[in-house]
Amino acid sequence: MADHDERLGQDGVGEPDAFERLWTPHRIVYIKGEGKPATGDEADCPFCRIPQMDDVEGLIVHRGEHAYAVLNLYPYNAGHLLVCPYRHVADYTDLTDEETLEVAELTKTAMRTMREVTSPQGFNLGMNQGNIAGAGIAAHLHQHIVPRWGGDANFLPVIGQTKTMPQLLGDTRDMLAAAWPKE
């Protein structure tokens, strides 16, 4: 262990503990925000641009009156959806009652639709409010809906910097859009 620390230019100050360390320096790009929109304004916001695209190009699964469901371009898991209000707002408390209701309804419908077509065993749901809380695009609120299956997480993304996805985004979009309940 001492030879390893010396190779890294670290002097090993401190007492050894029971933890092994898995160093992932490639993650610094994400932490520093490289590739994120340069500003927080609407002109630079992907969630404001996506609704201007056609559904296939924008990976839009469903359009509502106040919000829409879109596949995450960088999914954590297959079927990772985002529900975004059309209005460019950063904070959940800034949503109108109508927007709040539709974000909630679209989230419920997304979960039902995914259960019907992909049979996930669970879901992660969440909104990261602000950069410090992990929001990749903090200027435009978005709800994450991540389907989960037993054994879907492993060390490949950390060790191999690779995430295996069983289906192309376009195919996932088509499947979910076709199964989305018609109004």
TrEMBL record:
Q: Which InterPro entries has this protein been placed in?
A: AP-4-A_phosphorylase, FHIT, HIT-like, HIT-like_sf
Question: SUPFAM superfamilies from the xrefs?
Answer: HIT-like (SSF54197)
Binding residues annotated for substrate, in chain numbering: 72, 144
The UniProt record lists the keyword Nucleotide-binding: yes
The motif Histidine triad motif: which residues? 140-144
Q: Does the keyword Nucleotide-binding apply?
A: yes
UniProt keywords, alphabetically:
Nucleotide-binding
Q: Where do the catalytic residues lie?
A: 142
Q: Which domain of life is it from?
A: Bacteria
All copies of domain HIT, residue ranges: 46-155
Query: Which GO MF term does the entry hold, naming one?
Result: nucleotide binding
PANTHER family recorded for this chain?
AP-4-A PHOSPHORYLASE, HIT FAMILY HYDROLASE
Q: What is this protein called?
A: HIT domain-containing protein
Print the organism lineage: Bacteria, Bacillati, Actinomycetota, Actinomycetes, Propionibacteriales
